[in-house]
TrEMBL record:
Belongs to the TRAPP small subunits family. BET3 subfamily. GO terms for cellular component: endoplasmic reticulum; Golgi apparatus; TRAPP complex. The keyword Iron does not apply. Its main location: endoplasmic reticulum. This is Trafficking protein particle complex subunit. It is found in: Endoplasmic reticulum; Golgi apparatus, cis-Golgi network. It comes from Eucalyptus grandis (Flooded gum). InterPro entries: Bet3, NO_sig/Golgi_transp_ligand-bd, TRAPP_component. Pfam families: TRAPP. Keywords: Endoplasmic reticulum, ER-Golgi transport, Golgi apparatus, Transport. One of its GO terms (biological process) is Golgi vesicle transport.
């Protein structure tokens, strides 16, 4: 499919993507966090490592998205978010226009549904 014919739909991309069992993913991620806690011992350092890992994973996801969806270049943030919502992820977001300032700035509003407190079992094997 060429770029001229438009991007593939999210359903078509989702159908062609390999899937991983959610339990396997959860256990693997938990093992990584546990190992980082054991190796680094400082929760702040663990959070920095996890943040860097998340950033790198995000970069790879975007690369894969661009390779599989045949999306052209977006010119602004709004167009980028709309393209991702249409083609890649089915999300519910709200656009807020900053009318009070008199400019055409746009923001994405995301609603936090639930906050889960973070608890780390630190060296429970001692």
């Amino acid at each position: 499919m060429s770029r001229a014919s438009g991007p593939r739909s999210g359903d078509a991309i989702f159908a062609s993507v390999e899937r991983v069992n959610a339990e396997l993913f959860t256990l693997t991620y938990g093992a990584i966090v546990r190992q980082l806690l054991t190796d680094l011992e400082e929760v702040e350092e663990v959070n920095k490592q996890l943040d860097q890992m998340g950033y790198n994973i995000g970069i790879r996801l975007i690369d894969e998205f661009l390779a599989k969806s045949n999306v052209g270049r977006c010119v602004d943030f709004k167009e980028t978010a709309e393209m991702i919502a249409k083609v890649s992820m089915k999300t519910e977001v709200t656009w807020i226009r900053d009318v009070l300032r008199g400019d055409d700035a746009f923001e994405l509003q995301v609603k936090l549904l639930k906050q889960v407190p973070e608890e780390y079992p630190y060296k429970d094997d001692e």
